[in-house]
Write a structure and sequence with these properties.
Elements lengths: L2 H16 L1 H20 L5 H7 L1 H21 L3 H4 L6 H37 L10 H29 L3 H26 L9 H4 L3 H7 L6 H24 L7
Length: 251
């Protein structure tokens, strides 16, 4: 892998992490977890870190939309796409940047997990530590890195078509928040025998939303492979589209 791709990905990652909206969403995620500590007490520290998933999911959508879209906001796309990097290298670097952001989110969740471990240790004589074993933390790492790559690659694809930020944000919210919620409710109704399992239910398990509802980062080869295929297709189509577009700044 080219070092310049990694350097570009790191530069994008630093810009993303320093953004004010990232700080705001991390604050919101922390506040939500702390509120849950008093509203719905639990003895497992990682429970509170996982509770803010929807907040971080929206953050990932915003980051995925801005990772390439910011070049169109600030009218710098003509310089970016006509510089020392090829269009393919830029697209790939953006995906790696999102994967790096997934790692940052994992670090944030890891920090929260140990903070709640300390808080619960002080407040309770007994604490469940099964939620902070190494395998659980590695599952969380896998989950956020793959999820970030999936969301990032999809929104980069939308951005190469729309050439703005608003459209990817709307698509991201629709596909990864609203449809995820719909898939969750669908499985909930089936598992609680509220509705009979339809014959076409297996199709839901083949789309990202169905996989994400069931998968929490465990090393399930089938689920990871399917998500990687979606990521590969998103990146490939994005490269094909951007290579055929004339991304020159209009005077």
């Amino acid at each position: 892998m080219s070092n310049k791709i990694l350097k570009l990905a790191l530069a994008d990652l630093l810009i993303t992490v320093k953004s004010i909206y990232v700080k705001i969403f991390f604050l919101l995620a922390t506040v939500y977890s702390v509120m849950l500590l008093y509203v719905k007490p639990n003895l497992t520290p990682v429970y509170y870190a996982k509770s803010n998933y929807m907040v971080l999911l929206v953050l990932l959508v915003l980051s995925g939309a801005f990772i390439l879209g910011r070049d169109f906001i600030y009218n710098t796309y003509s310089y970016v796409f006509s510089g020392v990097y090829s269009k393919s290298e830029i697209i790939i670097s953006k995906v790696f940047s999102m994967m790096g952001f997934g790692f940052v989110i994992w670090l944030f969740q890891l920090f929260q997990t140990f903070i709640f471990f300390i808080v619960l240790s002080v407040a309770n004589k007994y604490i469940q530590t099964d939620g902070i074993i190494i395998s659980e933390l590695l599952n969380m790492l896998t989950f956020y890195v793959v999820l970030s790559a999936l969301i990032g690659s999809f929104l980069i694809l939308v951005t190469t078509i729309s050439l703005n930020v608003l459209t990817p944000v709307l698509w991201g919210i629709s596909v990864f928040v609203l449809l995820n919620t719909a898939a969750h409710n669908f499985y909930f109704l089936i598992e609680n025998q509220i509705i009979a399992k339809p014959k076409w239910a297996y199709l839901i398990s083949l789309i990202p939303q169905g996989i994400l509802v069931k998968w929490n980062g465990q090393l399930w080869i089938k689920e990871i492979t399917i998500l990687l295929v979606y990521i590969f297709l998103n990146v490939t189509i994005s490269i094909l589209i951007v290579n055929k577009r004339q991304l020159l700044k209009k005077d």
